[in-house]
Amino acid sequence: MSKNYASSTWCLNELVLILEQHRKFNQIVIPIFYHVEPTVVRNLTGSFKVGMDKHRKKMLETEFIEDIVTDIYRQLGVLLRSILSQDPHLIGIDYSINFLSSWLQDGSEHTADILTILGMGGIGKTSLAKHVYKLHFREFNRSSFVENISRRCVEQSNGFLHVQKQLCDDISKASLNPVHDLSVYTSTIENTLARKKVFIVLDDIDNLDQLDVLLGNKGFHPGSKIIITTKDATLTERCALFNPQVQPKHTKHNLKSLYVTDSLKLLCLHAFKCEDLKEGYEAVSYDIVNYCQGHPLALKVLGRSLHNRVVAYWEDCIKGLKKEPCSYINNVLKMSFKSLPSKNDKELFKHIACFFVGKDRDLTKTILKACNINTRSGITHLTDRCLLHIDWNNMLSMHSLIQEMGRDAVCQESPEKPWKRSRLWCHEESFKVLKHKKARGVILGKGNILGLSLDMRMLEKEKLRGSSELKTASFSNMDCLMILHLDYVQINGPYENFPEELIWLRMCGFPLKSIPSELPMENLVALDMSYGNIESFDVSCSNPQPLEDDRLLGSLKILDLSYCYKLNCIAGFCELPTLESLFLRNCTNLIEVSESIDHCDELVFIDLSYCKELRMLPRMLAKLKKVKKLVLDGCNIGELAMEVVQEIRNGNPIVSMPKCVRSLPRLKWLSLGRCDMWVSIEHPPRTLKDFTLQASKSVLDGPKSLIQKIAFDPEMSPLRLWLPLNDLAGSSIDIEGMIKIQPIAGVDDTILCSLGWRNLEFINKRRVGTYHYKRGPEGSQTQMYYEFGIFSTIYGGKLMPTWIRRRSKEPSISFTIPSSPKRLTGLNFCYVHTLYFPYWRSKIQDGNSEYPYHQLLFLPYIRISNITKNLTWIYKHYIDMVNVGGKSLTFLSHWMFGDNEMEAGDQLTIFIRQELEDNDYRYNIRECGVRLVYDNDDGINEKEEDPLSYYKSWNHIIGGDLSPFHLTTQEYNLQNKFFPWYTTLELGPNQPHPFIARSVLYKGHERLFKAFSQKNSNTRGRAIELLIGHKMYQNRSNYNLAMEGLINYTSSFQGVAAAFISFWLALENL
């Protein structure tokens, strides 16, 4: 320090930096005094006093006041956010709040960000956006929340001008004089947006013009944040703001329905003014939750209407909702329907709502294309507007309230006269229209009805009032009828007057032995005669009862004769040139499939499962070049051409992949059941997407299966492999490119060190067991699992490794990656999971022994989001269920991230969420933590070979090719479906049963079918009791009937539970 040191601003700033380094990093500071006494500096006298006085005069008090105000404002904001975050009415959206908050707090000042909140009407988009806005708007100098834009534009005079003025006033911080020209407001808004950093929420946008008028096309000032709520997934990206070369960063956030637990809490909050169920209201509460299917608005509206009402009133309300939906909820949902861009899309929506929910998308497209409906763009428009969802197995699904709204739209075509509607799906109304002469007289020559569905099992006999038989004349002159479902209907009379324009004819339980020759089928695209009495099917002239016209089935693409137990042969394929799908499942007396099948050049799917009398497949099968799916479960094939199958033994004991199967050029789906002698699975076709291998009952009861090797070609795309992995020989398995499992005690130390896993000896003493049907819980060595570039292990207890230091007591953690001179190579994430069952106890019986109570835990999924890079990975472990002896388990994982996935300065959010939950199954994330792993953290020399090189060589891992697991923009669902897990629970006869299972499509007994469809809690409880008691599975026919009905109730969690349990119990008796 010299005499003039205090006069130099640069010197003083340097001194501040030196002292900060000393405070933060404990660096040594040695002062050197040059021609100045230390007392002069200490007491600020002489030249130091003069220099400091000059600085004081230059400084303004307003700058200090501004800093003080800013600090107080920040601290008050933290307190306010803490208060707002405890809003009791916000249930089930914790992850969404955390995700949006992290997105808003991302420190990027170089670009503007747009986030679109997507979801069906009433799902909570506005509530979420409003809550997040209240939490964070104080962090921006200019902000605006514009609510209900679409409704205001429609309902208010000059509504668009009022919306523009509100936005303009908010972001300009001034009240402008009203004008009557949209372009004036648009110009002012876009100029402000280009110059100022803003935070804007535009709620309920439903068309492109609204965005272009409200935001203009000049872009945003860097650092601005825009949130848009909409029901249209493609809307934001089509607006003018995305036309310039420098586009804003765009993130999409899909808002889903609430889980059962959260649904119950929300219902109780509005019905009982607390989050707990009221005694005596359990069953009716579950019925309301089942009806609402996790829809927040419906839960709120119905909850408020049922406040202070007796149980009988609740029951009447439920009955009334089945007949007529709540108008308020229906009107909210109908806004999405009205916004569909074309008549084609609206007609498609009605068709799906009435007839195609739960049907395969490809089947739906094939049928409706023949009905002159454009499904290619139409299905896309419906999914974009959250009106339709495509399940992982390609099935069309629709929220029950959305489906109800679509069917109500059809009802409104003629509320009092169903015969004047375009579609009839209500079985009682269909029967009345076909039975009553007055209605038929009105229909005659009118041709209003496009589709009709009638299932006689759904009608109560006491309400039929006479004979249940119908006359074929009932269908005369239905000129426009294209879709006709007549299940288990007795029809008398000639079929020559049946509608000629039929595209899809389904007659399950058809009573005749053959298809009537006079039945007009020139335009048929899909024919379903399953569960019928047909003995032979041959459309060629060689058939004893041939169809008269060679062209009758020339357009047929889908033929389903499944469960026709009397069918013994099928031939005449030369007359089916356009056939694409052939279903012959469970035709237990089928002994021959004609060699003429080689004429079906378009054939894609063949299902011959459980055709037990079929001893030989046609030799010409290998000539079919377009086959993608082949199902041979439960067959007893004993003689095949060598070019069809290479290795086969009596009783179908296949030991390896047949060469003919490996040579099929387009095969995508292969299922082989009850093949207990498999020793290897090597090099299936590269096109394969799904492969199922089922063990028989004897294998489940007996020793482990013989599978020793599973290998796929490296170039293969990922596939779903359904295997009984618990039965695999040994305790280790390596399914190349998919998953590797081995005891962690046998893993090389260099690998564990590369993962940053140290001092893990204690976990081998904390084993958990996988859970196996029939044998009950099994202990096992602590395993290490590897898939998708993620290593993981699971062990009992609540002890996290000590080197996990960044921790959170919540089921989520957010942080910014700090800078480091080392290269980031991965991330270790760990959580502790506690659980308890307040009502249920699980008991598994095996022979004469009985297993004690065990806790069965469904593992949650982990969602890691890089907010800065707009990347998200959702990981669901391949193990669904774990048997826990205590009350806690710990999950430890290592994610192999690289520079392309995350780097210093990136904002990360990690969230844990239970996929399956209910009111009786309680869980809690006690703690979670994260630790970043850097290069050379393991102390390994850089010149040494990378211990993880084998794992990094896999194709479908983080940093590799994850395109097959792509969900939306930059979002990946990392989940392998290997095999189902099985469990049994003790269920009381009159209790609600909120146990949930996944991927259930099963059927049920006629009596139970009605019980489930009527959704009567007492009858339903008895139905479940019968299912578990095996009283309905004494023979195959009862089983088939049983499995058919439950599919109609699986939309509810109780129905899924019953179907899940009944299915696996039924398997024992097959």
Automatic annotation (TrEMBL):
<dbReference type="InterPro" id="IPR027417">
    <property type="entry name" value="P-loop_NTPase"/>
</dbReference>
<keyword id="KW-0433">Leucine-rich repeat</keyword>
<dbReference type="Pfam" id="PF01582">
    <property type="entry name" value="TIR"/>
</dbReference>
<protein>
    <submittedName>
        <fullName>Toll/interleukin-1 receptor (TIR) domain-containing protein</fullName>
    </submittedName>
</protein>
<dbReference type="Pfam" id="PF00931">
    <property type="entry name" value="NB-ARC"/>
</dbReference>
<dbReference type="InterPro" id="IPR035897">
    <property type="entry name" value="Toll_tir_struct_dom_sf"/>
</dbReference>
<dbReference type="InterPro" id="IPR044974">
    <property type="entry name" value="Disease_R_plants"/>
</dbReference>
<dbReference type="InterPro" id="IPR000157">
    <property type="entry name" value="TIR_dom"/>
</dbReference>
<feature type="domain" description="TIR">
    <location>
        <begin position="1"/>
        <end position="76"/>
    </location>
</feature>
<keyword id="KW-0611">Plant defense</keyword>
<dbReference type="GO" id="GO:0043531">
    <property type="term" value="F:ADP binding"/>
</dbReference>
<keyword id="KW-0675">Receptor</keyword>
<dbReference type="InterPro" id="IPR036390">
    <property type="entry name" value="WH_DNA-bd_sf"/>
</dbReference>
<dbReference type="InterPro" id="IPR058192">
    <property type="entry name" value="WHD_ROQ1-like"/>
</dbReference>
<dbReference type="InterPro" id="IPR002182">
    <property type="entry name" value="NB-ARC"/>
</dbReference>
<dbReference type="InterPro" id="IPR042197">
    <property type="entry name" value="Apaf_helical"/>
</dbReference>
<dbReference type="InterPro" id="IPR032675">
    <property type="entry name" value="LRR_dom_sf"/>
</dbReference>
<dbReference type="GO" id="GO:0006952">
    <property type="term" value="P:defense response"/>
</dbReference>
<dbReference type="GO" id="GO:0007165">
    <property type="term" value="P:signal transduction"/>
</dbReference>
<keyword id="KW-0677">Repeat</keyword>
<dbReference type="Pfam" id="PF23282">
    <property type="entry name" value="WHD_ROQ1"/>
</dbReference>
